[in-house]
Amino acid sequence: ATSELTGSSIEQITTNIGRLHDRFGPLAPDLKDTASFLEELNQAGASGSRGLLVAATSIDHLLGSSKEAKLGLEEIGVSVTDSAGKIKGWGELFPEIVAKLSGVTDEAKRARLENELFGGSWEALDQIIRRGTQGIADANSVVDAHSNADEQAAIRANTFSGQLEILGKNAENVAAQLGGIVAGPGTEILRWMNDAIKGAGDLSSKF
Length: 207
Fold this sequence. Notes:
Number of helices: 10
Helix content: over 70%
Radius of gyration: 24 Å
Structural class: mainly alpha
């Protein structure tokens, strides 16, 4: 789902997540948080490899050894640990930062804070900040919808009727491809197969 949403390859995404986790451990975003962050960036106009670059550089600046980022966090009153001293995950930390920054009405001050916190990628994140935590919630909903669809597809593919549905779609594709090239017994046989498969799928779904 993450790869489909962002237009980036699975290899690119997993490589970037692995690097962030190697550097920042539990502070780094997990797969779902990464998908949501990339979806937000995608909606802000930073998609594909650019979105991945913005995500990686902004997270690296925020969570790394940047003195500016530490001062920025102090100024907005956000800590990377909770009241018990436990390190917050990205899914908790980033919404807190967004909530604080979206409440800054002075645009010059907000831009300065964004620059301190996210470095050279701050402009790409400005639209995310402006949308506030609702934008994060919307991105999470998109990711959840894709994840649920993938899960249901996987479950359905493991049922008899699901296998017949997949086979039927394959037959439709082949018939459509051949239909544009030749006409004759071959395409008629494929159409018959497709109808038979659909009929069997309808019957199997009743059991």
